[in-house]
Amino acid sequence: MRKPIILKLALTGLVACGLVGADQVKPAASTQTTQFISTLSTPVKTVANQYKLYPSVMMAQAALESGWGTSQLSTSANNYFGVKGSYNGQSVTMSTAEYDANGQLYYTNAAFKKYPSVQESMVDNAQLLRNGTAWDSSYYSGTWRENAATYQDAANALTGKYATAPTYGTSLINLIQTYGLSTLDSGGSVASESSTADSSSANSNSATTTPTTPTTGATTTTSTTKSKKITYTTGENGQSVVLGSRFRNYAIYNHVKGSAYKTTKYSWYTIGGWTNRPVWLDGRAYKSATKTNWYRIRFSKQTTAKKYWVYKKALTFPKTTYSKLETSATIGSTSETVYNHVYNSAYLAKKLTTTDALKNQKVTVNEKATHVQNGITTTWYRFSAGDVTGWAKASAFSKVG
User: Fold this and answer.
1) What is the CATH number of domain 32-203?
2) Distance (Å, rounded) from C-alpha 253 to C-alpha 229?
3) Helix 32-50 to helix 55-66 angle, to the nearest 10 degrees?
4) Which PANTHER family does the entry mention (predicted)?
């Protein structure tokens, strides 16, 4: 890993979604899925049918976004889709812990919609899909039953629109097929056998949220020695990787092991870890004494989800290959984001600015990166223009070389 550059810039944006992967190891069974489906079946069928949507897709989305109803937003605000803002003037403020460059904890708040009931949450989601966005009322028209011949078509229509993860639709389809949710589309109820499939197995394909308080399998230890030096950096919240094949060889904590904070060690069995389970990253810690990197992860794209720290080797990062390139380039006419590192790389990228003020200008390029994730290859260039030095995707340039 090259020497990281720590920039004193405020985090300017949140990216909603990251990688969604398929599970390979399924934990033991749980009644969480059965209870969740039983509670939501009536409101989901009522609302989805009213708005001519697929109940199976709505149920799968609710399960995916709320971690089968374990997210803090769903339990305290009936908010099953992580929607920010207020609903009829009602909202709930969620506090999330952050670290500054010196490793000091601080908290920031965000308002999320608070619904009076489960049904209102479903209605709000249905209205979004039916009414679209401010700039395109038919933005989600691919999910409408008159346009989607099957629930698979409706689920795939959400990919790249509701969520940017390239396998988002596949994740929903896996949930529907695993738990027999397609019976909801014909007015039936989901068979009780769905309880034999664990909630965590479905979450391997979803943006899950773990409970906010540890249960069995958690042990607390207090660090007796303060680490000589731990440098913390933050990145965009939407960056995502997966748990590696050897993740169980490394523990999971609430703080970096060896830091000055009281450290709690959790059991992977309790957390629900398995190979290729997607995790979202928003922080990196470099321990100078051991020359090792740690990452702050969460099991949901929702920024209010509980956060943990793991050693780098517990994770599998997309492959990013760097090469020197001394040339000139011209910024294109479209608006692209400029980051301090390649997005979703092991360095963790933070947004610096956009190319808006640089459109059609010539810049100097000094490095190239090839990034491969989910079978998709993207090319990035590191460029300089005045006071701006950062990375942008090849699509940001109209000409290179």
Assistant:
1) 1.10.530.10
2) 18
3) 130
4) PEPTIDOGLYCAN HYDROLASE FLGJ
